[in-house]
Design brief:
heterodimer; A: mainly alpha; 9 helices; 77% helix; B: 497 residues; mainly alpha; two-stranded antiparallel ribbon; 19 helices; globular
Chain lengths: 237, 497
């Protein structure tokens, strides 16, 4: 296990990580824990809060990287990402979901295709698979802590798991947005120098996607009078 | 030429915005003007792109032969379907029509923008925008089926594009190792960096791109949204989804293919595409049988043709690559025709179920035969452009020594031919018991011509199909010299980056 962890960490000696690498790894680990929190959380309201917290960690990581590597663009990105993902997206989600969040929350608690315990256990397996798979790629360097990248890989798999095991449209949407956070983490770790204009375009695109997801959730709720996807079985073959 | 780029990038979007605010008739007219003008502008790029690349705004806007071929497919279909939509929207109320035209133009805009992007990041954004807009268009029918299809589509396609974004991130990482930390994900420098790129990130980026963008292409096993969305979307949107959107997403895969082939050699990317292509073709050949919804039938035909494209690229021979590029254009025309024909049937019979469509050759004197010709064209019967393209692909496969894959391709395409023609002949020629079984109308508004009466719902819905047929014949019999040069240059770019 130690060997595998070292491989994922991208170092062959037991040197302690620097401040930047340590911070990146800790933040990545916290984001993964929040991902599990979203998976386990029954209430959509709280899932959105956890998403906002996870997004805030992304902004913190961007600031850490900006300070460590002298990339002033990342300060702007951190501010923009924070404003959008921590404030605007959760607000838009809650507003677009509106009444359904409060009305359906008790019903959504049973929206697992697996029992909550089984879902968490399966996701631990997925996380381990993602962690060791991404770790085995040995994509690392002085600017790219491989351990954080491996954790981002684990988050990607858990986010997919979240979308699969939950049977309500709102949780599936939150799963997708957290998948986007996992990719943002990977991007910060291996592609921190990406021009700000492109990062901004990604964020704007996310905002539009949130609005469309919200509209489709409302449409679904309007027709099915529920957030459950259990009835979405009319189209087959 | 920069002006041409900018007009292509502005006109459809501006038309979309205008369509939302003006009466439906004005929106229809504006859409036709925008569609025809956009196609004419794309055509004007052909002579220059056939002999050189065009690049503006520090490379953020770029067109080479490969991108112009995909622009041609989208431009033609945008123009043809814009005309068709005039007849289609007459069967809907004004509010629906205005929303439809706003979304339709915005959708065409995003698809025209994608091949003009000189950066993998902007390309991803453009493809993501196509998903967002088209998901709303799928849901516009406001039925249970439309809501279900739209949700599945937006979730699955967005998740797939999440993987494509991860592919873009790894492509940046690979590029930054060679081109510096301020590399902006421009496509051409990445291809030129070639073997200097680190191999693992490039391999990973290519796999994720095939899986991610492949979700939008409709490659097995990530195709599951496709039949639902194609069947529930308004017919003009189905035509654009199938003929253009899948191709635009395939274009994104081809850009990653170029990078991977330059860095890793062509073996790994070709093997990957062959596996996905064969699996997709096999799935389509199984599912075309037993379909009851005509639009689902055509959707599986789209999976087949994207599989053929993937297999064609995997052959690697220049003649096969030229065949793939010709196939992209011919498939756009043929699938556009098939969906437009199917749309006439659904309006005429008030149902998408093939069991409700009978005696089509007699009752639809133009659309019946034209639909049959579209099915024959999709089945690669000569002299359609698809016959020529598939012939080139198979010849390329045999020429490059891929005998088994070429044989499998021929067998599975033949199987699909039987499935498609069996369904189409039932709709067109089978008379007894005709129109006795009627499903609930698939659209708002009653058909203008009662199902039992001989006649077309609208001449607007026939004219663009004739144009599509002409394109198929030109591509099959004698493609213009400039177009042949364009395809040759595109195949060269694809084969030897």
């Amino acid at each position: 296990m130690n060997t595998a962890l070292l491989a994922a960490g991208g170092t062959t000696s037991l040197q302690p990580p620097g401040i930047y690498q340590g911070a990146a790894n800790v933040i990545a680990a916290l984001m993964l824990l929040l991902e599990f929190g979203m998976l386990r959380q029954a209430l959509i309201r709280d899932q959105v809060r956890l998403y906002a917290a996870q997004s805030a960690l992304i902004s913190v990581l961007a600031i850490v990287i900006a300070a460590d590597r002298g990339l002033p663009d990342l300060y702007a990105l951190a501010g923009l990402s924070g404003a959008l993902k921590v404030v605007v997206v959760p607000l838009v989600l809650r507003r677009l979901l509106g009444v359904p969040v409060d009305e359906d929350s008790p019903g959504v608690a049973g929206s697992y295709t697996l029992s909550p315990a089984s879902a968490v256990l399966a996701s631990i397996g997925l996380a381990a698979f993602g962690f060791f798979t991404f770790g085995a790629f040995h994509i690392s360097g002085p600017a790219a802590p491989a351990l954080a990248l491996a954790i981002a890989g684990a988050m990607v798999f858990v986010a997919f798991g979240l979308m699969i095991v939950r049977r309500d449209v709102a949780s599936q949407a939150v799963g997708f947005f957290s998948l986007e956070n996992a990719i943002s983490l990977a991007a910060l770790v291996v592609a921190a120098g990406l021009p700000l204009i492109l990062e901004t375009a990604f964020l704007f695109d996310l905002l539009v996607a949130v609005v469309v997801f919200g509209m489709l959730i409302r449409t679904h709720h309007g027709r099915a009078e529920s957030l459950s996807t259990a009835d979405l079985t009319g189209l087959r073959g | 030429m920069l002006a041409v780029f900018l007009v292509i990038l502005i006109l459809p979007l501006a038309t979309g915005v205008i369509s939302f605010t003006v009466p439906a008739r004005a929106a229809a007219l504006a859409t036709v003007v925008s569609g025809v003008a956009s196609f004419a502008l794309v055509l004007s790029l052909v002579p220059e792109a056939a002999h050189g690349d065009l690049s503006f705004l520090s490379g953020y806007l770029r067109a080479d032969a490969l991108s112009v071929i995909f622009l041609l497919a989208t431009g033609f279909l945008y123009a043809a379907v814009a005309v068709y939509a005039v007849g289609y929207t007459r069967h809907h109320d004004a509010t629906y029509a205005r929303r439809f035209y706003a979304g339709f133009n915005a959708f065409a805009w995003a698809m025209l923008a994608a091949p003009l992007m000189g950066s993998l990041a902007l390309l991803w954004i453009a493809v993501e925008v196509t998903t967002i807009i088209s998901a709303l268009l799928v849901a516009i029918g406001d039925t249970d089926g439309a809501a279900e299809a739209a949700w599945k589509y937006v979730l699955i396609a967005s998740a797939g594009l999440g993987l494509a974004l991860l592919a873009t991130v790894f492509a940046y990482y690979a590029g930054a190792q060679v081109l510096g930390q301020h590399y902006n994900l421009a496509i051409q420098p990445l291809i030129q960096a070639g073997s200097r790129l680190p191999q693992t990130p490039v391999r990973l980026a290519f796999l994720l791109a095939v899986l991610g963008y492949g979700t939008k292409v409709g490659l097995f096993p990530v195709h599951t949204w496709l039949p639902d969305a194609h069947s529930e979307a308004p017919t003009p949107v189905s035509a654009l989804l199938s003929g253009s959107l899948l191709a635009v997403s395939f274009y994104a895969i081809l850009r990653f293919y170029q990078v991977a082939a330059a860095s890793l050699g062509s073996g790994f990317p070709r093997d990957t595409l062959l596996a996905f292509g064969i699996a997709s073709l096999l799935l389509a050949s199984l599912y075309v049988f037993g379909q009851r919804d005509v639009k689902r039938l055509l959707a599986y035909s789209s999976v087949e043709h994207m599989g053929i494209c993937a297999i064609g690229v995997s052959f690697g021979a220049p003649v096969a690559l030229a065949g793939v590029l010709l196939h992209v254009m011919a498939h756009a025309a043929a699938k556009g025709n098939a969906f437009m024909g199917a749309g006439v049937f659904t309006v005429k019979y008030g149902s998408k179920q093939m069991s409700a469509m009978r005696d089509g050759m007699r009752l639809l004197p133009w659309s019946g035969p034209l639909f049959l010709l579209a099915i024959f064209a999709l089945s690669a019967l000569p002299p359609s452009g698809i016959f020529r393209s598939e012939f080139q692909i198979v010849a390329g496969g045999l020429g490059s020594g891929s005998y088994t894959a070429a044989a499998v391709l021929v067998v599975l395409v033949t199987v699909v031919f039987f499935g498609l023609t069996a369904s189409a002949t039932g709709m067109l020629l089978y008379t007894p018991g005709g129109a006795t079984h009627r499903d609930p109308p698939a659209h708002r508004g009653a058909p203008r011509v009662p199902p039992g009466v001989r006649g077309e719902p609208s001449a607007w819905m026939v004219v663009p199909v004739l144009a599509g047929l002409a394109v198929l014949l030109v591509l099959g019999l004698h493609p213009p010299g400039e177009l042949t040069d364009l395809i040759s240059r595109g195949a060269t770019q694809l084969g030897s980056p």
